[in-house]
Write a structure and sequence with these properties.
This protein is mainly alpha-helical. It contains 18 helices and no strands. Helix 2 (12-25) packs parallel to helix 8 and helix 13 packs parallel to helix 15 (307-321).
């Protein structure tokens, strides 16, 4: 089969990939997740964080069997199964408010994430390689991320409207119905037949190789863990901003609209920050400035009983906090050999997941005691970690 025939046969995978990514970007529950789990699910924040801790551990555990499916069967099979499991997860969540059903749903969801992780990108790379267009991978992935973000922005307010005018449980049922579209799309992918590629490493091998690389490279170790620890602190906003909105008496109808606006603000900073970094000579000063902005934004949140002030701080953290990773990109890439880059970054991501799984229950305890105290603790931790940083400007 020549390249022209290959292009015609497999090019459909690209637009199907866009559709698949857009559907999975729809999340009608995310904007109202906290009130969904508390008002309908009957859980408190401790129960929610225990569920999320379990979810993080399950993703870690399921990575080996999921990788085996993608390697030994096919990427298409992995994506089909991923779609089935996420549909099962959404419907299981909406059957009845029961903690055991919720744990089962999180197991399904973790399996779905583990199955799709890397399989979608690998399928698209194989498609582009078959059609001789490997150089378009970054463009395709970037466009897919953009469509995923658009789906997030649209679906968050939609979820709030459904919760307010239909019912809270239907926000999850609706998600299951929508994700059936992803399952149907996955059935239409065409798997390119290529020479057997290197099998995906299991997480134990990744951890071993990654830690060996970090152990022998001090600069890389400093950059990776400096990025990780503060990023974990900032990521806690994802699970605490909705309890905050409840605490300052913002109606649930507005939750999705606020999340949508935050996502748009974050997307804008995602475009602006990399461009701005090219013009900055002393990146360490910028890093410290960004960290201080985030630290004090969390501290102000700890005193912000005025909703307008609190929401302004949320925007600052979404803008400066969720994009600070770009400051490290060049420095980390300079220190890692290209063939080891994925391994090292996977090791750091796995370590971050374990850290979050461990601390989530403690976060739940503090938030239940006092949400404002949680923000103060996060802000102070960010400032302390910033003061202790060993990053030098030349590392970045």
């Amino acid at each position: 089969m020549n390249q022209v025939e290959n292009t015609g046969k497999f090019s459909g995978n690209i637009w199907k990939f866009y559709l698949y990514g857009f559907i999975f970007g729809i999340h009608t529950v995310r904007g109202v997740y906290y009130i969904y789990m508390t008002e309908w699910g009957g859980l408190d924040i401790i129960g929610i964080m225990l569920l999320q801790s379990y979810f993080m551990f399950m993703i870690f555990i399921l990575e080996i069997p999921s990788g085996a499916i993608a390697d030994h069967l096919s990427r298409k099979t992995a994506l089909i199964l991923s779609s089935i499991f996420v549909v099962l997860a959404a419907f299981t969540y909406s059957i009845y408010p029961n903690i055991f059903l919720f744990f089962l749903a999180e197991t399904f969801w973790a399996f779905s994430i583990a199955l799709s992780s890397g399989s979608d990108e690998a399928l698209i790379y194989s498609t582009l390689k078959t059609t001789g267009e490997e150089d378009k991978l970054t463009k395709v992935l970037g466009r897919n991320h953009f469509l995923h973000l658009i789906a997030n922005v649209i679906s968050a307010p939609l979820g709030s409207i459904i919760a307010e005018y239909v019912s809270l449980p239907f926000t999850m049922t609706c998600l299951g119905l929508i994700y059936i579209g992803a399952f149907i799309t996955s059935l239409t992918f065409k798997e390119p037949i290529l020479k057997r590629e290197e099998k995906t490493k299991g997480y134990l091998t990744i951890l071993k190789d990654g830690f060996n690389e970090l152990k022998k490279n001090k600069v890389l170790r400093i950059l990776c863990f400096d990025r990780l620890y503060i990023q974990v602190c900032i990521h806690l906003l994802f699970w605490t901003y909705q309890p905050y909105l409840v605490a300052v008496n913002i109606p649930g109808l507005w939750f999705g609209f606020i999340l949508s606006a935050l996502n748009i603000f974050n997307a804008t900073f995602n475009e602006l920050v990399p461009r701005f970094l090219k013009k900055v000579s002393n990146k360490k000063n910028m890093l410290i400035t960004v960290n201080i902005i985030n630290g004090f934004a969390f501290i102000i949140l700890g005193f912000a009983s005025l909703p307008i002030l609190g929401i302004l701080m949320l925007f600052l953290i979404y803008g400066f906090g969720y994009t600070r990773r770009y400051i490290y990109v060049n420095g980390i890439n300079k220190e890692i050999k290209s063939e080891n880059r994925a391994t090292v970054l996977s090791t750091i991501n796995m370590f971050g997941s374990i850290v979050m799984a461990i601390i989530y229950p403690f976060v739940g305890l503090i938030v239940k005691w006092n949400i404002f105290a949680m923000f103060l603790i996060i802000g102070i931790m960010i400032l302390i970690l910033t003061a202790l940083t060993k990053v030098k400007s030349e590392y970045l």
